[in-house]
């Protein structure tokens, strides 16, 4: 009886370990490594305007799929409220606390191997920014 229980436990642990390994390799179709991300932003509201494109690089992995500028990545006042992966599409909501109130960023991107496209909306008080994002894989991370 003890032997059967031990075998059943071993089989259960093996199946759990297999399912854990599968979930780590699943996720969006993206090439892990260094990505160049370009964001174009347009403000809506009382004073609409268009900002020049901003480009930055970031290491993106299956565990870290949301493109975030280094400034927001290290900002302790910013946190992800929601992060959903459905197939190759990643959606999120991030909130940053500022002295002037909360800034909410809701976005969605779809990976296509070595590139992605997406958008996000950034809301602060009565101002809303729409960001279009494109990304391309540019090499290995160091």
Automatic annotation (TrEMBL):
UniProt-listed InterPro entries: DUF3617
Signal peptide residue numbers: 1-24
Lineage top rank: taxon: Bacteria
Keywords of the record: Signal
Annotated protein name in UniProt: DUF3617 family protein
Organism ancestry: Bacteria, Pseudomonadati, Nitrospirota, Thermodesulfovibrionia, Thermodesulfovibrionales
